[in-house]
Design goal:
CATH topology of the largest domain: Uridine Diphospho-n-acetylenolpyruvylglucosamine Reductase, domain 3
Helix content: 25-40%
CATH architecture of the largest domain: 2-Layer Sandwich
Distance between the termini: 49 Å
Number of domains: 3
Strand order of the largest sheet: 4-5-10-6-7
Order of helices and strands: EHEHEEEHHHHHHEEHEEEEEEEHH
Shape: globular
Number of strands: 14
């Protein structure tokens, strides 16, 4: 690990000021990606700005219309929340199956989506539920937030404050996971809201994305059989030691059908 300056922020303005003063600063949320990356000398920020002490970035607020989760709320807290379990059960189940207990008790919602790992779970929920990402500067619709592999619409000194998920009529998430890390080799989140069905895929390509071909085939209905007619473009799929592009394309269909069936039950 390279030498760096540690900054403990007590407020969002404090964190932003520390970032603007740093030569090459990075915000630290749960640290589940940043710290191992630094340990292996794959990153060497001049300053690490810890957001853990900022109270306004934590907590869960649920209404009849939405579930709003603070960026520094851990996966374990989301999974254990009876409010989330009642409002959007699929979101609570997704959070409860991220990594292992250590990861779930340290990793955060904001850290996950800001990092935007191609195999992370939360981005699929953000997209499928049509969430809004509130930052220190603005509100970003889900469809505009994820821009590429490990890339988002966030500016360098912009901090995620919270994510607001609309309450869906029904939703489900299914993933074919790596048995060691529980990262999604392919994960599919399906959500039906006000007669519209949104489908999001993670793990299959360089970035989580809306499965527009599947959405078009479903035409607002949770009918798993309609997915059989969809052709997934193999050339856009990831291919690695865990699964070939052809296998991932196949898994998108399989996981989509399972998620649709679960959401309609």
């Amino acid at each position: 690990m390279y030498e760096f300056n540690y900054r403990h922020a007590n407020s969002v303005p404090d964190a932003i000021a520390a970032m603007q003063a740093a030569d090459d600063g990075k915000f630290l949320a749960g640290g589940q990606t940043m710290l191992p990356t630094m340990k292996h000398r794959l990153a060497g920020p001049s300053d690490l700005i810890d957001l853990k002490g900022i109270a306004e970035l934590k907590g869960i607020n649920v209404t009849d219309q939405s579930v709003t989760i603070g960026a520094m709320t851990t996966h374990a807290e989301v999974a254990a929340s009876t409010q989330v379990q009642n409002a959007i059960p699929a979101l609570a189940r997704l959070a409860g199956n991220i990594g292992d207990p250590a990861v779930r008790n340290c990793g955060t919602l904001g850290g996950s989506i800001a990092n935007n790992d191609p195999a992370a779970d939360y981005p699929s929920a953000v997209l499928a539920l049509g969430a809004t990402v509130k930052t220190s500067q603005r509100e970003i619709p889900a469809d505009e937030f994820f821009t590429g592999m490990f890339e988002t619409a966030l500016a360098e000194d912009e901090i995620i404050v919270s994510v607001s998920f609309p309450v869906a009529e029904s939703a489900a998430y299914m993933k074919f996971e790596n048995p060691a890390s529980r990262y999604a080799i392919v994960g599919v989140f399906v959500a039906k809201t006000a007669g519209t069905v949104r489908v999001a895929v993670t793990g299959a390509t360089t970035c989580a994305h809306r499965a527009l071909r599947i959405e078009e085939a479903l035409a607002g209905e949770l009918d798993a059989e309609k997915v059989d007619a969809v052709t997934i473009p193999v050339e856009k799929m990831n291919s690695d030691i865990h699964a070939s592009a052809d296998y991932r394309a196949h898994l998108v269909i399989v996981m989509a059908k399972r998620a649709i069936a679960a959401a309609s039950s």
